[in-house]
Design brief:
This protein folds into two domains: 216 residues, Creatinase/prolidase N-terminal domain (Creatine Amidinohydrolase, Chain A, domain 1); 248 residues, Creatinase/methionine aminopeptidase superfamily (Creatine Amidinohydrolase, Alpha-Beta Complex), CATH 3.90.230. β14 and β15 form a beta hairpin. By secondary structure, the chain is α+β, with helices and mostly antiparallel strands. The protein has a six-stranded mixed sheet with strand order 6-5-4-1-7-10, with helices on both faces. It has a three-stranded antiparallel sheet with strand order 11-14-15. It binds glycine and manganese (II) ion (MN) (2 copies). The site of one manganese (II) ion has 5 residues, from loops.
């Protein structure tokens, strides 16, 4: 018996020291499956890189760095989210990667690439490591990255060598005089003891400058913003889907709302629906605030119990393949707005209606906000909430328009509207307790936020399927099967 136990132990030990079967290299199919069929098709990235290359001078190069892994605390990291610029240009999902664009291309030394091909794009990626892969998931590696992503990929240890070949070359015909370096993984960090804010983007540029004093180090933010602000057909398809998922989430959240519900329960209903429908995450921390919390613009803790008679403001958007919607609805906890809440709500609604009309080709992006301001200023004066017209800013303290896309506040150049831009329209009124107006208005916070597509003709409200009018919201809340009684 003892001998049998001994033999069994040897077998266990022997197999423990061997590589477990799931650390065997997965085949390329594994990674293709990880890319959902509805994600951005790979040829789209080639097109985007070509567009960037076409705007660069022949003596330049550009580097786009993947996001780093962010530590949450001690041994635990946040779930990884790729840098938006990097994602936009190659779709590669891993950290510790760099995309280099080289107008005119570079023929690599035979040791790095025996094909002798000229490459205008190079991807530098993590080296495969079966031990790490067993812990944190498969690493694609250079060979499979080349095969799957349509860009010549090298292990990232080669990045400095290739950069040196272009910035301080033995062969001067290869020399590039300008490096476009865009968003770095972490734009700034705070040094904990001194409190000094270290701008990492600047530091990285300075280091590069020191190493290659002859090169001009420039930011390329504006170039990518020009491209990213106009959505291609695949981006619009995905954004519409993200909006539809978000609408379903808002409907689930509305159905979960009743007196004495906790804000976190509403948030759970919202985000559960997002995930159930395939969203990988929220595009920003959900804002679910009842009563006094409805007046806090970026309230995210969701800990309070909502009471009858309060409004509940819900600003939440699903992220799909990296693209996020951004939608806000404000509803009465009881299913019926009070007369004061109704007044404020309708004012915001009319302001939003006036603003949405202005999302037209060639119109200055500031016009919708001005329209919303006109309505809200006049309305607040009429209701006696303000007496000085400029004081509207006390209760409407934010803008109404921003691009959405890979970032909830997406890249864009904020000039005139162009077809295939998609932007929010989000006026609001927030009257915290203690405001210099009749107490009956206190603790009413209302924002209505929709996602508007600019076209060659009329603007399209992509999130219009989610009710916005007072009557529709009340009808929706009272038609549900969940009795809206106190718990
Ligand atoms: N959810 C962030 C915003 O509305 O801008
Ligand atoms: Mn917004
Ligand atoms: Mn929002």
């Amino acid at each position: 018996m003892k001998i049998l136990v001994f033999i069994a132990a040897i077998i266990v030990l022997a197999s423990a020291s061997a590589l477990p079967s799931f650390a065997q290299p997965p085949n390329a199919e594994y990674f293709l499956q990880a890319r959902h069929k509805d994600n951005i098709p790979l040829p789209r990235y080639t097109e985007r890189r070509r567009s960037v290359l076409a705007t660069m001078s022949p003596k330049s190069l550009a580097v786009f760095v993947a996001a780093d892994v962010r530590n949450r605390q001690n041994d635990v990291d946040y779930e990884y989210r790729q840098s938006s610029d990097f994602l936009y240009l190659c779709g590669f999902p891993e950290a510790e990667s760099v995309l280099m664009l080289i107008p005119g291309g570079l023929v690599l030394p035979k040791a790095l690439d025996s094909s002798g091909a000229r490459h205008e794009a190079l991807l530098f990626v993590k080296k495969r490591d079966l031990y790490l892969e067993m812990r944190s998931g498969s690493i694609i590696g250079a060979d499979r990255a080349t095969a799957l992503f349509g860009v010549k990929a090298l292990e990232n240890a080669n990045f400095a060598t290739v950069l040196g070949m272009l910035l301080a070359p033995e062969d001067s015909t290869l020399r590039r005089d300008t490096v476009f370096a865009t968003t770095f993984p972490t734009s700034s960090v705070t040094e904990p003891l001194s409190g000094e804010v270290v701008n990492m983007e600047r530091e990285a540029r300075l280091r590069l400058q020191k190493q290659y004093p002859r090169a001009l180090i420039r930011s390329q933010k504006r170039l990518l913003a020009d491209m990213r602000q106009i959505k291609d057909a695949d981006e619009l398809r995905i954004l519409r889907k993200a909006v539809d998922i978000s609408i379903a989430g808002h409907r689930a959240a509305i159905a979960a709302t009743k007196p004495n519900v906790y804000e976190y329960e509403v948030e759970a209903a919202m985000e559960a629906e997002f995930k159930r429908l395939g969203a990988e995450d929220v595009g920003y921390a959900s804002i679910i605030g009842a009563g006094a919390n409805s007046c806090i613009l970026h309230y995210t803790s969701s800990r309070r119990q909502a009471e009858t008679g309060e409004v509940l403001l819900m600003d939440s958007g699903a992220e799909l393949f990296g693209y996020t919607a951004d939608i806000t609805r404000t509803i009465p906890v009881s299913g019926k707005f009070s007369p004061e809440q109704r007044e404020i709500y309708n004012l915001v609604y009319v302001a939003q209606e006036a603003a949405i009309k202005e999302y037209r080709k060639g119109v200055d992006w500031r016009l919708p906000h001005s329209r919303a301001v006109e309505v809200i200023r006049t309305g607040l004066l009429k209701l006696g909430i303000i007496t000085n017209p400029d004081d509207y800013k006390l209760y409407f303290p934010h803008g109404s328009v921003h691009y959405i896309g890979l970032d909830v506040h997406d890249a864009g150049n904020y000039a005139t509207f162009q077809p295939n831009m998609i932007l929010t329209c989000e006026p609001g009124i927030y009257i915290p307790a203690g405001s210099a107006c009749d107490k009956k208005w206190w603790n009413i916070g209302v924002r209505i936020e929709d996602d508007i597509l600019v076209t060659d003709g009329d603007p399209i409200n992509v999130s219009a399927a989610l009710p916005r009018r007072v009557e529709e919201i009340e009808a929706m809340m009272n038609a549900g099967t969940v009795p809206r009684k106190k718990r």
